[in-house]
Specification:
DNA polymerase, domain 1, ten-stranded mixed sheet, TIM Barrel, 11 helices
Length: 355
């Protein structure tokens, strides 16, 4: 039987923690910054690459830390070459997926925060899997660094990160925010806070906490229905936090942060894609419209197919009618491009077959 590696993942440390450890080893303060820069700016993956450190310190790093929890087990590229999905195996043999999406002007990563998900949304493949465990902050960070290295080899860089992969980010609040803080550090990867989007099914207490922290990170809320009974059938979280409670928390977020909020809506044929559904959504969102300007935005995306849900994607014609109705009521709306459907890398399709 293989012996369990008890070393700490180095990406789980923030800079003050790293400084504390180096200090306890009797190392000068600047060594921690050298290691930090090596990890996040040079993106070195093992102690031997840190040639600016004494050999003894490199050996100590090897002894006390592991530099990877993620083992790439499989990778799929979409037929158009614009989407790449990687399956990672974790030390406990749980598995997660992360996705790179190439657009003309940006390189967006869709990152996981949990192995599986406890929210149970019926149309989502991850929700159909059930919950495995929370990822550590370092395991979230490491997904980003994996793709950042890949892009760097091609002379490109990560421009945006959406925490919309496997899991509910606000259900793993501490680790998710620590990961964002680490990636946002000007001395580290230096990704601006507004380049991050955290997506939630609507965990009201966590949204309120997020609001109180006045973060500059973008917030997206998966809504999909404005009828409580209907939404509860699709998204069990609605049984705990009703649509009215959720929208009130979202309104508090907008009023306190003065930031625009995004609502996500998967368009499911004959379920939530009619002009009447759009009209009812628009009426609910009027609270975000002030003096003709809306501090909200609706992203609609035709449903991506998953094995355990029989619903079908709406047609292009119905999606355009839905968008037009929202805009008629002053609610901005974008029909999102479906990406990576052929490799099950689209929204709601991530489901690591852990085997």
């Amino acid at each position: 039987m293989m012996q369990k590696d008890t070393r700490k993942l180095i990406y789980d440390l923030d800079l003050p923690e790293l400084e504390g450890i180096l200090n306890s080893w009797g190392e000068p303060a600047y060594r921690a910054r050298q290691i930090w820069n090596g990890l996040y700016q040079n993106m070195w993956q093992e102690p031997q690459e840190f040639t600016n450190l004494p050999k003894g310190l490199r050996e100590k790093l090897t002894e006390h830390f592991t530099f990877s929890h993620l083992v790439p087990a499989a990778a799929l590229e979409s037929s158009d070459g614009e989407t790449r999905k990687t399956l990672f195996r974790l030390p406990d043999q749980k598995a997660i997926e992360a996705v790179l999406m190439r657009y003309s002007d940006r390189r967006t990563l869709c990152i996981s925060t949990q192995a599986g998900c406890a929210m149970g949304c019926v149309f989502c493949a991850t929700g159909q899997m059930g919950f495995g465990r929370n990822l550590t902050s370092g395991e979230i960070v490491e997904q980003v660094l994996f793709y950042a290295r890949l892009l760097r080899k091609q002379g490109e860089e990560v421009t945006n990160i959406v925490l919309m992969g496997m899991g509910e980010p606000l259900h793993n609040y501490e680790a998710t925010m620590k990961a964002i803080d680490r990636l946002n550090d000007p001395q580290g990867l230096n990704l601006g806070a507004r380049r991050f989007t955290v997506s939630t099914v609507g965990l009201v207490p966590a949204i309120r906490r997020f609001t109180a922290e006045k973060r500059q990170v973008n917030l997206a809320v998966s809504l999909h229905s404005v009828d409580d009974e209907h939404r509860s059938a699709m998204m069990p979280v609605n049984r705990r936090y009703s649509i009215e409670e959720l929208l009130t928390a979202c309104e508090e977020y907008v009023n306190q942060t003065h930031r625009r909020i995004t609502f996500e809506w998967a368009l499911i044929q004959d379920v939530n894609d009619s002009v009447d559904h759009a009209r009812r959504l628009a009426i609910k969102l009027q609270r975000f419209v002030h003096h003709g300007s809306a501090l909200c935005h609706v992203n609609v995306i035709p449903l991506n197919p998953t094995k355990a849900y029989s619903g079908k994607a709406t047609t292009r014609q119905r999606a355009l009618a839905f968008q037009a109705e929202l805009e008629r009521h002053g609610i901005p709306c974008t029909i999102r491009i479906r990406r990576g459907i052929d490799i099950q890398a689209g929204c709601g399709q991530l489901a690591a077959d852990a085997g």
